[in-house]
Amino acid sequence: MSRFLPFFLFTFSLSLVANPEPVKEVIISGNDAMQFDIKNFQAKPGESIRLTLKNIGSIPKIAMGHNWVLLKKGADAISFGQKVLASGGSATNPLPKSLLGDVLAHTKLLGPGESESISFTAPTIAGEYEYVCTFPGHFAMMRGSMEVK
Ligand SMILES: [Cu+2]
User: Fold this and answer.
1) I want to staple 142 with a disulfide (CB 3.0 to 4.6 A). Which of 90, 126, 131, 138 is the partner?
2) pLDDT tens digits, residue range 4-54?
3) In order of start, what are the domains of the chain with their CATH numbers?
4) CA of 89 to the centre of ligand 1 (A)
5) Distance CA 115, CA 79 (A)
């Protein structure tokens, strides 16, 4: 039996290569006017998502950095932005570690011309999941939601 194991493992890994799970691509940009260009998108429960955030502005990161932070269900982007400030969030520490319990996925803070792609799995529970840029004060403008259905 054991001599079949290598063959089994080979065909199994081959099937992973041959049938990759479909991945939903989402590309969001943030600009110097504190705007995300996409303020909502849909995902299927459990869907694999590759999200790219692009900072298309030119103002230095220390004054106009952007990140993309997806919050767990029921967490509100405005309240979360206020919590960031209350927890010592700053231009150099825009997402205090103490708040990560409310976060499902996030990029790092990006300066002008930078981009980052992250991969995550959409929650299996349907509903609205808010996202926000947690650079201090940006939560007033830079918000959106992912609708899982
Ligand atoms: Cu921002």
Assistant:
1) 138
2) 555 555 555 555 555 667 899 999 999 999 999 999 999 999 999 999 999
3) 22-148 (2.60.40.420)
4) 13
5) 26
